[in-house]
Amino acid sequence: MHDPQAAPRSPSHDARPIDGRAPTLDPHAALARFGLSSSDLDAAMGALFERKIDDGDIFIEHVEAEAVLIDEGLVKKGSRAIHQGFGVRAVTGDKTGYAHADVISRASLLEAARAARAIASTEGGAHALTASAGHTQRELYPVADERDPLTGDLSEKLALLEAIDKRARAYDSRITQVQASFSAERRIVLIATADGRLVVDVRPLSRLSVSCIAVDPVKNLRQSASAGGGGRWEMPLFSMPVSLADGRLRWERWADEAARRALLLLDAVDAPAGTMDIVLGPGWPGILLHEAVGHGLEGDFNRRGSSAFSGRVGQSVASPLVTVVDDGTIEHRRGSLNVDDEGTPTQRNVLIENGVLKGYLQDRMNARLMGVAPTGNGRRESYAHVPLPRMTNTFMLAGQDDPQDIIAGVKRGIYAVAFGGGQVDTTSGKFTFSGAEAYLIEDGKVTAPVRGATFIGNGPDVLTRVVAVGHDLSLDDGVGVCGKSGQSVPVGVGLPTVRVNEVTVGGVNAGARGAA
Amino acid sequence: MSSDTNEVETDLADRCAYALQAATKAGASFADAMVMGGRSTSVKVRLGEVIEVVQSRDQGLGVRVLVDGPGGLRTVTTSTSDLGDAAITRLVEQAVAMARRTAPDPFAGPPEAGLEAPVPGAPGDLDTYDDAVVRLDADRAIGLALATERAALDVDPRLTNSEGAEMGWGFSELHLLTSAGVHRYRRSSSASLWTTPVADDGQGNKQSDYWYTSARHFADLEDPSVVGQKAAQRTLRRLGARKPKTAEVPVIFESPMASRLIGSIAGGANGASIFRDASWLCGKLGQSIASPLVTLSDNPWIVRGAASRLFDGEGLSTQPMTLVDRGVLKTWILDTYTGKKLGLPTTRSAGRGLGGSPSPTTTNLWMDNGEVSLAALIADTKFGLFVTDSVGGGANTVTGDYSQGVVGLWIENGELAYPVEELTIASTLPAMWAAIDGVANDRDPRKSTSAPSFRVAKMTVAGA
Fold first, then answer.
1. A217/B contact by beta carbon, under 8 A
2. Which of A23, A254, A274, A368 is least surrounded by CB atoms within 10 angstroms?
3. CB contact under 8 A, A431 and B391
4. pTM
5. What CA–CA distance (Å, rounded) separates B1 from A83?
């Protein structure tokens, strides 16, 4: 995944219409907006189930998006987009037939249904009519009825970008370039399932990004850094205070952070090279979990036996201090969903509990083939993509240690508080993540900042070397994008301060070896 | 691929023209519009069975409007997959209204007139469309995917599992129209085939790697047996990998890895980074930035080339250029806007997606072959690292820092001795490119971005 930058709820299959909400929340009104009625869906489902298939669905999507960018002090670029289309899927055994198009009509639905069902060769029979219909019961990210963030408030957004630009430039005279962008989308998805449900979910998603370039003219050095955040909420939340302790507004903190980090890197030393103990700060460093264990616990790799974690449920895969959760039900979070892209309500899934592997992340197909229940993790980038088991918000539960004590306990190592991105080879289990803000730890004290280094480790055993877990769990600011099989989806991560022993740090300075 | 449909195909050029009319009517002083339409199919097999068939029909329209006002022109881009009159009109009107509220940019403007005229020496046709690809039927494609996977798994009994094999193929067409009366058109087909076998050493340690082939023409695809065997060899050679000791040693990048690295020069030379003073190459035009063994060029005119094109994202006729000549940086990569910002003519390198403004990009980016074979280059290296793939990290083209997780093979006494993993390599881009002291002759001409294997005299390898 990368950054280009909890309360469990009981799931329910009872979908019902919600009265008095915006018209788009009513499935029939949503269908009507595409020029369709439920009889069109029934006709397409009928065509799909003329072959004997185990599962099938129709996914219709409409996305409206807007972005504005400030560059060189001027808001001189803006964009708007409207995309819509549908996909029809037939599943038999482990086989999937999928057809998608961006012209939405009864005729194109029928054509796609015939193309998708060709994956199955046996004649089928009846299927459930789309009788019940409703909005998902959850309201993890309610959308304001009247105020469409995509048409209103342009001047508010422009003023915000100008304020960010000014603040970041005022931070220090060595800040030479500031770019800030605000992007927002509203995605309406309609899912007709094989068991006759018609689910609609309206998903807002917004993000503010700030990046700065700092130049040291004497040393002839330049550095760049970025900060930002967002989630399934709309504009006004960017102007909320960060916390009681930090009186700044969210956007103010991100502008400061981007500038501060770029300046910090101007004075950074070369990262050491070799194996050493590292301390990860809270929040975004949770990318460690996403790469080290998250992908390897996705149902598809494990059903096929190609993951380093295949067949290891019930075994110890981490230190007893470690409990890892994937939770799609946290309000307003970037990785949250009322229902996944197969219409299954999301839930809080415990992946690793006190070090023991509890289960995998499942979509409908892999769950059926592995004989378990779907976990609400069937996600797709858009109507043009087949659902896959994916993460939502993945984090480690808080432990008991004081973060300061954790750092103080390391003789020589690295303290990393921000990362650029990460990657994993799910077969071998080897993963990497790249530091964006990291420091040397010398004799228990955080000292010089180090320039961006890549960390590399082995997913199946790195968590066995977690020797301390802080009490300061925090989730990231909402910038994560996860890529898999060419599909990108928004995700979240979180972590308390943790100490991991013996991680390989890929700096250039082979002379400064860590503790062996 | 199924081509039967009872729907009338959309007249794509007409949709572009409609968008331009709507933009002019809404008050744009200049507009250009790009429309794309295509169909594609992919079939995936695993362990001898078909597991996925996906059929896609795509269309989309992107419009850029330039609106004049106090202080100069404003730019807004917009895109839609709904090509009906109502959707286009609404979107274009919103774009013009949005543009009126953004800031003027003195450097914004339409491309210079006349640059759409053919460039002397350009091929008349790049031959990027092949009926044999478009007419390929799913059964034949399934057969090819099955043969590819089988060819891989048959190589060695340690190949016990598979992430499958996939064949994809399709075509797309593109119209680009401007309110100045330019109309350009191209169509292309493409086909690809890959497989990813999984090897097991019998002690629970698994490895996988892949190989693929892709081409505009069906006849240019590598044979399934070749693709499968290469994937198998690449996977098997990873088995038994160890973590090496931290050291400073010579590093040879195998051609696929070397091909990824040349992006660090192209990215650094991109006009959009240069005018922002955000590149490790700022101020280096005309200077030596790499070893004299390095010559890099961008050629949009390769017949059947993967990234070939006769016009760029602004409709301007393309031309080949030498980016780095024996180590010396010769040009930035520019479109109209970044050229104006730097006081230079465009290199006609505008890339463009449907959703955004044009911005500079490369086409077929190639580093020239050296004179020795890869085997000779390895034999010439007493101790060192042979890098075959990367896992995360990479080059920072702003600062020039480089740190990357890699896998590969350790070289001892001029021979590939054993596989290594869980290591990183690090250096800086100026140091790395200057320290190239050996270039092999194994560049793969089928790839759009391709470099031969090359050796960097010394890098930091971090392991145990």
1. no
2. A23
3. yes
4. 0.90
5. 25
